[in-house]
Amino acid sequence: MIGRLNHVAIAVPDLEAASAQYRDILGATVRPPQQEPDHGVTVVFIELPNTKIELLHPLGEDSPIAAFLAKNPSGGMHHICYEVDDIIVARDKLVSSGARVLGGGEPKIGAHGKPVLFLHPKDFNGTLIELEQV
C-alpha cells in the first residue's frame, strides 16, 4: 500500500539556522520557507537526490510543533511521510485494520498541495506517520 518515502520531517527551534546548516554545511538545496496556516507550521524543504527533509517551525502559539518543541527544545524528528496512490483507499484499509487516523480521518491539503493524513504514533512503534496522495 505505501509507496516511496516522501520526506522526513524535523521540528526545529530556529528555522533560519537549521536551513543554513543544510545549505552551507551539508551543501543541500534549500527551498524558501512557506507558511502553512492550516497546519500551524512554517516549512522549509531540503531537496535530496532520493527524498526530502522537511524542517518544521511553529506558526503561532497554537501550533502542534510549539508543543513538540516545548518537550524537545533542541528539536528532533517529528514524522515520516510515505506516498500512497489513493489516500481514501489507504485510510479505509488502515482503519479496518485497527489503525487510528488523527484529526477526524478526513484528508487535509498538505504543504505539497496534495491530500494528507496522519496516523497515530502509538499504532506505529511510536512514530507519527503522514500519508500523502501522489
Walkthrough of the structure:
This protein is of the alpha+beta class and 134 residues long. The protein has a single domain (5-133), classed as 2,3-Dihydroxybiphenyl 1,2-Dioxygenase, domain 1 (Roll), CATH 3.10.180. It is built from 3 helices and 9 strands, in the order βαββββαβαβββ. Strands 1, 2, 3, 4, 5, 6, 7, 8 and 9 form a 9-stranded mixed beta sheet that branches. The longest helix has 11 residues, at 15-25. It is globular, with a radius of gyration of 15 Å. The two termini are 12 Å apart.
Main attributes?
nine-stranded mixed β-sheet; alpha+beta; 134 residues
Task: List the topology elements.
Blueprint: E1 5-11, H1 15-25, E2 29-30, E3 34-36, E4 41-47, E5 52-58, H2 64-71, E6 76-84, H3 87-96, E7 108-109, E8 115-119, E9 129-133
Parallel strand pairs: 1-5, 6-9
Antiparallel strand pairs: 1-6, 2-4, 3-4, 4-5, 7-8, 8-9
Nearest-integer average pLDDT: 96
* Count of strand segments: 9
CATH architecture: Roll
| Biggest sheet layout | 9 strands, mixed
Q: What's the helical proportion of residues?
A: 10-25%
N→C terminal distance:
12 Å
Low-confidence stretches: none
**CATH-assigned homologous superfamily:** 2,3-Dihydroxybiphenyl 1,2-Dioxygenase, domain 1
Summing up helix and strand content along with how strands pair, one would put the structural category as alpha+beta
Estimate the global geometry from the Cα principal axes.
globular
Strand content bin: 35-45%
Order of helices and strands: EHEEEEHEHEEE
CATH topology: 2,3-Dihydroxybiphenyl 1,2-Dioxygenase, domain 1
Number of domains: 1
Radius of gyration (CA) equals 15 Å
